[in-house]
Write a structure and sequence with these properties.
The chain is of the alpha/beta class and about 325 residues long. The chain has one domain: TIM Barrel. The chain is built from eleven helices and nine strands. The longest helix has 19 residues.
Amino acid sequence: MVDRVSSPLPAALEDRVVVADGAMGTMLQSEALTLDDFAGHEGCNEILNVTRPDIVRGVHRACLEAGADAVETNTFGANLPNLADHGIEDRIFELSRVGGAPAREVADEFAEPVRPRFVLGSVGPGTKPPTLDHAPYVEQVKGLLAGGVDAVVVETSQDLLQAKASIVGAKRAMAADGRVVPIIAQVTVETTGTMLFGSEIGAALTALEPLGIDLIGLTCATGPAEMSEHLRQLARQSRVPLSVMPDAGLPQVGPNGARLVGGCCGSRSRASASTGGCASRTSGASVPRPGLGRGPGGRRAVLRARLPRGLLLVRLRGVP
């Protein structure tokens, strides 16, 4: 039997705006890393969880010092296609677990009774077109759960088959582990108006929402302006809270009901400070959920000049 209260994140999201970190890859690339640091696996950031955990901890610490409430694990590429490129596909569980551990350690170091810190387990799309084999994602999420994550983020999904496989794999891992944490599904819509493999945002919602995800949204590829119309469509149709993590810039989304706002590629720890300042000026009104009705007594979330308080996870990767 699974424990559905094993993550403290949902309660925090009900209470306040949660600010998350900047881009792990961007900050790692700013370090003077050598081939030895990568144990010969050049470009495999996940191996740094083993060889240079001090640097990974430093990235997490910098984001938390800047004001973040949540940090994301260095496990974006801890999947079968990516690790197989380096000949270490047998280390999926290990690299996922040790990716969660430093994030958990630093988050607990900064945690306060009135302000806990959270760890988001990153599950990226891999480097090759997906199959419906859920097993690699099961191993990755089992490792993340063992590392102590508070949520799983299926992010930068460009193919709905991959996104579905990740989500189903995550749920199987949770069932096996006996612990359930929220699943946040983030798809990537290109400047063409569709995902890389041709799916529109409505198709993504139709395919992923029935799988029991906890939030759905957009990440990477474009900025706030380009994402706004897709987000408005989600706001009209989604029955789960929304999220948005655009490239480059502060959260500037209009009246579209987003619950999870942030950014992608390029940011450093200072982005958390900028977003934290924005979050601190939010209104005290509670944030309704999309899909709970639009007539008398129904409620619609609105993000205008300020972000409303409530079910909102903020993550900013884009450089202001």
